[in-house]
Amino acid sequence: METELSHNLQQLSEKARSTTEFIHRLKGMSDKVTESCIEFERLVSAQCESLIQMIHERREFLLDTIRIDKETKIRTLKEQQLNCTGKLQQTNGLIQFCIEALKETDSAAFLQVGSMLINRVANTDMTWHQEVTNAAPRVSPIVDLTLDDSHVIRAIDNLNFIQMKLPLAPQIIPEDCSAENNSVTVAWLQPNHSFIQGYVLELDDGSGGEFREVYCGKETICTVDGLHFNSMYNARVKAFNTSGEGEYSDIIGLQTAEVAWFTFDKQLTGTCSGLNFMNDNRTVSADGWEHCVALGTVGFSRGVHYWEFTIDRYTADTDPAFGVARIDVARDKMLGKDDKGFAMYIDRQRSWFQHNSIHERRVEGGISTGSTVGVLLDLERHTLHFIVNEMPQGSVAFRDLYGVFYPAVSVNRGVTLTLHSGLYAPHMDYH
Predict the structure, then answer these.
(1) Which of 129, 188, 195, 260 is the most exposed, fewest CB within 10 Å of its CB?
(2) Could you read off the pLDDT of 142-158 as tens digits, one per residue?
């Protein structure tokens, strides 16, 4: 029995000690509450003083507006007063002159000025009727301005504290989400009962990898361009405020296009002025004899991609070049002349592969009007192939292609080409 009592006393003692510590913690929290409230009062007072200062500044602006309106009206009235005074003085002078003329006893002398005076008096009477009798003040003496303070009053009435909590998770709107070519659009709803200052949208790498931030802002819809083709991207979004970041939304998967649709990009090609784009930027020609490079609207860094060109016109002894290029390729040289371009240039009878001004591996078979040239970029094997008139033009043209590559051609006078995209890649021998 003593042992049981001793055990119970020990437990009770532990509870008493815990309660004592809890009481001390509560006292400490009371001090922190006091400190926090004092600091918060200071912040609220500062915010209110700032608002009051803004009201004072706005008041001065409004009073200045009234003063400017007053000065403008007074100046207008003075100008009108001066005009009327001048008209009155001219009229009085005419009246006095006519009175003196009527006193003239020499009939011949009166006849010389009588007709002229009659006309002047008639004209003066007409203009007096128009300018003076029917005249009205050009401005109103009443201030025709009204101070619209209703919005401010409502804002002051609604000025209150809000309970800052972490925002809830946004809700993805599947019917408003889409994927087109190599871009995706994600839309979401603002979570209810949450104070939101912004959103963070994240995408994975299209292969189930880690998420990365692609957008941060206040909009509830975002389009992300420049993604990989034929890839399933997972997207999620979260909201944030000054208290921190909320939970993520549910994940939505968006599949980019299996094949790439693109045209020539006039913006990227702008540094070379000799090119002409037609047919919604799918057809290109050149004016001069110097080569100009035209780039496509999309860049590739992953996947297998194929596109073709038809030769619409080929009338001169020239050799257009087809292939791929990095974004900073020289625009005013034949494709393949610098280390940014990988190309095949071809004439009526044969072709060569060219990179960094080194051309090699001559292949028989050329082009003419109506020919087709295909470009196969395989970034899974990191190779580049060419096909002329549905037949492989040699073996693998280039290997070890890593990075981002844009479809590219270079043309000069005498050649017109049309680009065809959205094509499935043919099977090739990679040996």
Answers:
(1) 129
(2) 877 788 888 888 888 88
Distance between CA atoms of residues 413 and 369, nearest Å: 14
**Least-confidence region, from 16-30, 263-277, 319-333:** 16-30
Cα Rg of the chain, angstroms: 43
Using an 8 Å Cβ cutoff, are 277 and 292 in contact?
Answer: no
Using CA atoms, how far apart are residues 98 and 357, in angstroms rounded to an integer?
102
Helix/strand/coil percentages in the chain, nearest 5: 30, 30, 40
Which pLDDT score, from 0 to 100, does residue 94 have?
A: 77
d(CA 34, CA 39): 9
CA distance 309 to 42: 71
pLDDT digits (tens, 9 = 90+) for 344-387: 999 999 999 999 999 899 999 999 999 999 999 999 999 999 99
Distances (CA, A) of 156 to 31, 48, 55, 153, 215: 32, 11, 12, 5, 34
Residue 67's H or E segment, with its range, is helix 2-102
Q: Are 338 and 330 in contact (CB under 8 A)?
A: yes
Q: Which residues contact 230 (CB under 8 A, 6 or more apart)?
A: 256, 257, 258, 259, 303
**Do the beta carbons of residue 181 and residue 256 sit within 8 Å?**
yes
Find out whether 405 and 420 touch, Cβ atoms under 8 Å.
no
Q: Is the dihedral of CA 74, 79, 82, 88 positive or negative?
A: negative
* pTM greater than 0.70: no
The 3-state DSSP class for residue 341 equals strand
Distance (Å, whole) CA 424 – CA 391: 16
Q: Quick one: how far is CA 188 from the chain centroid? A: 20
Flag whether pLDDT at 388 surpasses 70.
yes
* Helix (H/G/I), strand (E/B), else coil: 144: coil
The single-letter DSSP state of residue 375 is E
